Amino acid sequence: MRYRPLASAGVVTALVLALEVSCRAGLLKKSTIIPPSDMAASLWDLLASGVYSHAILLTLGNVAIASGISIAGGFVAGVAIHASAFFRRGIEPYLSAYYAVPTFIFYPVFVVLFGVGSGAIVAIAVMLAIVAMITATLNGMDRIPRVLTRTARVLRMPRLRAALLVQLPATTPYLFTGVRLSIAYAFIGVIASEFILSGDGLGYAIAYAYNNFENRTMYGLMLLIVVVVSVVNASLDILDRRLQARLRA
After folding, report:
1. How many domains does the chain have?
2. The CATH number of the domain where 201 resides is what?
3. Fewest Cβ atoms closer than 10 Å to its Cβ: which of 27, 44, 80, 195?
4. For 50-71, what is the mean pLDDT?
5. pLDDT: is 39 or 199 the higher one?
6. In a domain? residue 18
Protein backbone atom coordinates (compact mmCIF):
# COMPACT_ATOMS: atom_id res chain seq x y z
CA MET A 1 0.00 0.00 0.00
CA ARG A 2 2.91 2.35 0.74
CA TYR A 3 4.19 2.21 -2.83
CA ARG A 4 0.80 2.35 -4.57
CA PRO A 5 1.04 6.09 -5.46
CA LEU A 6 4.53 5.56 -6.91
CA ALA A 7 3.36 2.54 -8.91
CA SER A 8 0.36 4.47 -10.24
CA ALA A 9 2.54 7.43 -11.20
CA GLY A 10 4.99 5.10 -12.92
CA VAL A 11 2.28 3.42 -14.99
CA VAL A 12 0.78 6.77 -16.04
CA THR A 13 4.22 8.16 -16.93
CA ALA A 14 5.04 5.09 -19.02
CA LEU A 15 1.75 5.33 -20.92
CA VAL A 16 2.21 9.06 -21.57
CA LEU A 17 5.78 8.52 -22.83
CA ALA A 18 4.62 5.65 -25.06
CA LEU A 19 1.92 7.86 -26.57
CA GLU A 20 4.38 10.72 -27.03
CA VAL A 21 6.89 8.50 -28.83
CA SER A 22 4.18 6.93 -31.00
CA CYS A 23 2.89 10.33 -32.07
CA ARG A 24 6.36 11.77 -32.75
CA ALA A 25 7.39 8.67 -34.70
CA GLY A 26 4.36 8.96 -36.95
CA LEU A 27 2.77 5.73 -35.78
CA LEU A 28 -0.35 7.73 -34.94
CA LYS A 29 -1.69 10.43 -37.26
CA LYS A 30 -1.95 13.98 -35.94
CA SER A 31 -5.43 14.16 -37.42
CA THR A 32 -6.37 11.41 -34.95
CA ILE A 33 -4.43 12.33 -31.82
CA ILE A 34 -1.72 14.83 -30.94
CA PRO A 35 1.29 14.21 -28.64
CA PRO A 36 0.69 14.70 -24.89
CA SER A 37 3.24 17.53 -24.86
CA ASP A 38 1.13 19.39 -27.44
CA MET A 39 -1.98 18.73 -25.35
CA ALA A 40 -0.26 20.27 -22.33
CA ALA A 41 0.90 23.27 -24.38
CA SER A 42 -2.61 23.74 -25.74
CA LEU A 43 -4.09 23.57 -22.24
CA TRP A 44 -1.62 26.19 -21.02
CA ASP A 45 -2.50 28.51 -23.89
CA LEU A 46 -6.24 28.06 -23.33
CA LEU A 47 -5.96 28.79 -19.61
CA ALA A 48 -3.69 31.80 -20.22
CA SER A 49 -6.05 33.27 -22.81
CA GLY A 50 -9.08 33.03 -20.53
CA VAL A 51 -11.33 32.21 -23.49
CA TYR A 52 -12.86 29.20 -21.76
CA SER A 53 -12.89 30.54 -18.18
CA HIS A 54 -16.68 30.91 -18.18
CA ALA A 55 -17.16 27.41 -19.63
CA ILE A 56 -14.85 25.93 -16.98
CA LEU A 57 -16.61 27.69 -14.12
CA LEU A 58 -20.03 26.73 -15.49
CA THR A 59 -19.16 23.05 -15.76
CA LEU A 60 -17.49 22.85 -12.35
CA GLY A 61 -20.42 24.74 -10.81
CA ASN A 62 -22.91 22.29 -12.31
CA VAL A 63 -20.82 19.35 -11.09
CA ALA A 64 -20.68 20.83 -7.58
CA ILE A 65 -24.45 21.38 -7.48
CA ALA A 66 -25.23 17.92 -8.85
CA SER A 67 -22.77 16.31 -6.42
CA GLY A 68 -24.20 18.17 -3.44
CA ILE A 69 -27.80 17.27 -4.30
CA SER A 70 -26.89 13.65 -5.00
CA ILE A 71 -24.89 13.18 -1.80
CA ALA A 72 -27.39 14.88 0.52
CA GLY A 73 -30.47 13.50 -1.23
CA GLY A 74 -29.00 10.02 -1.57
CA PHE A 75 -28.10 9.88 2.11
CA VAL A 76 -31.55 11.01 3.25
CA ALA A 77 -33.26 8.62 0.82
CA GLY A 78 -31.02 5.75 1.93
CA VAL A 79 -31.84 6.33 5.59
CA ALA A 80 -35.56 6.53 4.81
CA ILE A 81 -35.49 3.34 2.73
CA HIS A 82 -33.51 1.50 5.42
CA ALA A 83 -36.06 2.51 8.06
CA SER A 84 -38.91 0.73 6.26
CA ALA A 85 -38.43 -2.96 5.49
CA PHE A 86 -41.64 -3.03 3.42
CA PHE A 87 -40.61 -0.06 1.29
CA ARG A 88 -37.10 -1.44 0.87
CA ARG A 89 -38.34 -4.80 -0.39
CA GLY A 90 -40.38 -2.97 -2.99
CA ILE A 91 -37.71 -0.57 -4.24
CA GLU A 92 -34.45 -2.52 -3.87
CA PRO A 93 -34.88 -4.59 -7.09
CA TYR A 94 -35.22 -1.34 -9.03
CA LEU A 95 -32.08 0.08 -7.40
CA SER A 96 -30.14 -3.03 -8.41
CA ALA A 97 -31.22 -2.69 -12.05
CA TYR A 98 -31.12 1.11 -12.15
CA TYR A 99 -27.93 1.52 -14.18
CA ALA A 100 -29.21 -0.87 -16.82
CA VAL A 101 -31.49 1.98 -17.94
CA PRO A 102 -29.73 4.69 -20.01
CA THR A 103 -30.41 7.86 -18.06
CA PHE A 104 -30.08 10.10 -21.11
CA ILE A 105 -33.34 8.83 -22.59
CA PHE A 106 -35.04 11.20 -20.14
CA TYR A 107 -33.34 14.33 -21.43
CA PRO A 108 -36.35 15.45 -23.56
CA VAL A 109 -38.46 15.39 -20.38
CA PHE A 110 -35.92 17.47 -18.48
CA VAL A 111 -35.67 19.94 -21.35
CA VAL A 112 -39.44 20.45 -21.15
CA LEU A 113 -39.31 20.81 -17.35
CA PHE A 114 -36.14 22.90 -16.94
CA GLY A 115 -35.42 24.26 -20.41
CA VAL A 116 -32.16 24.02 -22.33
CA GLY A 117 -29.51 24.95 -19.83
CA SER A 118 -28.01 24.12 -16.46
CA GLY A 119 -31.28 22.92 -14.89
CA ALA A 120 -31.70 19.99 -17.25
CA ILE A 121 -28.00 19.16 -17.11
CA VAL A 122 -27.93 19.09 -13.30
CA ALA A 123 -31.13 16.99 -13.24
CA ILE A 124 -29.61 14.34 -15.51
CA ALA A 125 -26.39 14.30 -13.48
CA VAL A 126 -28.35 13.90 -10.24
CA MET A 127 -30.32 11.00 -11.73
CA LEU A 128 -27.04 9.37 -12.67
CA ALA A 129 -25.30 9.98 -9.33
CA ILE A 130 -27.89 9.75 -6.56
CA VAL A 131 -28.45 5.99 -6.67
CA ALA A 132 -24.77 5.36 -5.91
CA MET A 133 -25.17 7.31 -2.66
CA ILE A 134 -28.44 5.56 -1.80
CA THR A 135 -26.84 2.16 -2.29
CA ALA A 136 -23.75 3.11 -0.26
CA THR A 137 -25.95 4.37 2.59
CA LEU A 138 -27.95 1.15 2.64
CA ASN A 139 -24.76 -0.96 2.59
CA GLY A 140 -23.26 1.06 5.41
CA MET A 141 -26.33 0.85 7.63
CA ASP A 142 -26.64 -2.89 6.98
CA ARG A 143 -23.09 -3.42 8.21
CA ILE A 144 -23.23 -1.55 11.49
CA PRO A 145 -21.94 -4.06 14.08
CA ARG A 146 -24.75 -5.21 16.35
CA VAL A 147 -22.53 -4.79 19.38
CA LEU A 148 -22.50 -1.03 18.76
CA THR A 149 -26.27 -0.73 18.57
CA ARG A 150 -26.66 -2.91 21.67
CA THR A 151 -24.13 -0.79 23.55
CA ALA A 152 -26.08 2.34 22.63
CA ARG A 153 -29.25 0.74 23.99
CA VAL A 154 -27.55 -0.35 27.20
CA LEU A 155 -26.29 3.19 27.71
CA ARG A 156 -29.81 4.45 26.94
CA MET A 157 -28.54 6.91 24.41
CA PRO A 158 -31.23 9.05 22.72
CA ARG A 159 -31.89 8.02 19.11
CA LEU A 160 -30.36 11.18 17.62
CA ARG A 161 -27.22 10.93 19.77
CA ALA A 162 -26.83 7.24 18.93
CA ALA A 163 -27.18 8.04 15.24
CA LEU A 164 -24.50 10.75 15.40
CA LEU A 165 -22.05 9.06 17.76
CA VAL A 166 -22.50 5.38 16.91
CA GLN A 167 -24.19 4.73 13.57
CA LEU A 168 -22.68 7.57 11.52
CA PRO A 169 -19.02 6.78 12.39
CA ALA A 170 -19.63 3.07 11.71
CA THR A 171 -21.04 3.80 8.26
CA THR A 172 -18.43 6.41 7.30
CA PRO A 173 -16.28 4.15 5.05
CA TYR A 174 -19.33 3.10 3.03
CA LEU A 175 -20.71 6.62 2.88
CA PHE A 176 -17.39 7.92 1.64
CA THR A 177 -17.44 5.35 -1.16
CA GLY A 178 -20.86 6.69 -2.10
CA VAL A 179 -19.52 10.25 -2.07
CA ARG A 180 -16.68 9.34 -4.41
CA LEU A 181 -18.99 7.51 -6.82
CA SER A 182 -21.55 10.32 -6.74
CA ILE A 183 -18.92 12.91 -7.65
CA ALA A 184 -17.60 10.70 -10.45
CA TYR A 185 -21.08 10.15 -11.87
CA ALA A 186 -21.84 13.86 -11.53
CA PHE A 187 -18.80 14.67 -13.70
CA ILE A 188 -19.93 12.12 -16.28
CA GLY A 189 -23.51 13.33 -16.27
CA VAL A 190 -22.69 17.03 -16.55
CA ILE A 191 -20.03 16.81 -19.23
CA ALA A 192 -21.94 14.25 -21.31
CA SER A 193 -25.12 16.33 -21.05
CA GLU A 194 -23.28 19.43 -22.21
CA PHE A 195 -22.49 17.64 -25.47
CA ILE A 196 -26.19 17.45 -26.35
CA LEU A 197 -28.10 19.94 -24.18
CA SER A 198 -25.98 23.02 -23.71
CA GLY A 199 -24.60 25.91 -25.66
CA ASP A 200 -21.86 26.43 -23.09
CA GLY A 201 -19.59 24.47 -20.77
CA LEU A 202 -16.62 22.21 -21.33
CA GLY A 203 -18.66 19.44 -22.94
CA TYR A 204 -20.07 21.86 -25.49
CA ALA A 205 -16.63 23.38 -26.11
CA ILE A 206 -15.12 19.94 -26.78
CA ALA A 207 -17.96 19.01 -29.13
CA TYR A 208 -17.63 22.33 -30.95
CA ALA A 209 -13.87 21.88 -31.37
CA TYR A 210 -14.41 18.33 -32.64
CA ASN A 211 -17.01 19.40 -35.22
CA ASN A 212 -14.69 22.14 -36.47
CA PHE A 213 -11.56 19.92 -36.62
CA GLU A 214 -9.79 21.96 -33.92
CA ASN A 215 -7.85 19.01 -32.53
CA ARG A 216 -5.44 21.07 -30.49
CA THR A 217 -8.23 22.85 -28.64
CA MET A 218 -10.23 19.65 -28.23
CA TYR A 219 -7.37 17.69 -26.69
CA GLY A 220 -6.35 20.62 -24.50
CA LEU A 221 -9.84 20.76 -22.99
CA MET A 222 -9.96 16.99 -22.65
CA LEU A 223 -6.65 17.08 -20.77
CA LEU A 224 -8.09 19.74 -18.46
CA ILE A 225 -10.98 17.44 -17.54
CA VAL A 226 -8.61 14.52 -16.95
CA VAL A 227 -6.41 16.66 -14.69
CA VAL A 228 -9.33 18.06 -12.69
CA VAL A 229 -10.93 14.65 -12.19
CA SER A 230 -7.57 13.11 -11.25
CA VAL A 231 -6.89 15.83 -8.66
CA VAL A 232 -10.37 15.48 -7.16
CA ASN A 233 -10.08 11.70 -7.03
CA ALA A 234 -6.59 11.82 -5.51
CA SER A 235 -7.75 14.29 -2.86
CA LEU A 236 -10.72 12.09 -1.97
CA ASP A 237 -8.43 9.04 -1.85
CA ILE A 238 -6.08 10.76 0.61
CA LEU A 239 -9.03 11.82 2.77
CA ASP A 240 -10.47 8.30 2.61
CA ARG A 241 -7.19 6.72 3.76
CA ARG A 242 -6.92 9.18 6.65
CA LEU A 243 -10.46 8.40 7.74
CA GLN A 244 -9.79 4.67 7.53
CA ALA A 245 -6.63 5.03 9.61
CA ARG A 246 -8.47 7.13 12.17
CA LEU A 247 -11.27 4.57 12.46
CA ARG A 248 -8.78 1.73 12.93
CA ALA A 249 -6.89 3.65 15.63
Report:
1. 1
2. 1.10.3720.10
3. 27
4. 94
5. 39
6. no
* Any domain includes 175: yes
Angle at 247 between CA 241 and CA 249, to 5 degrees: 105
Q: Who's near 189: CB < 8 A, 6+ residues apart?
A: 66, 103, 121, 124, 125, 126, 127, 128, 129
pLDDT of residue 246: 65
Whether 157 shows a pLDDT value over 80: the answer reads no
Domain that holds residue 187: 52-248
Q: Own/partner pairs for 175-178, CB < 8 Å, 24+ apart?
A: 175/75, 175/133, 175/136, 175/137, 175/140, 176/236, 176/239, 176/240, 176/243, 177/136, 178/71, 178/74, 178/75, 178/132, 178/133, 178/134, 178/135, 178/136, 178/137, 178/140
Q: Give the separation between CA 191 and CA 104, rounded to whole angstroms.
A: 12
What pLDDT shows up at residue 4? Answer: 67
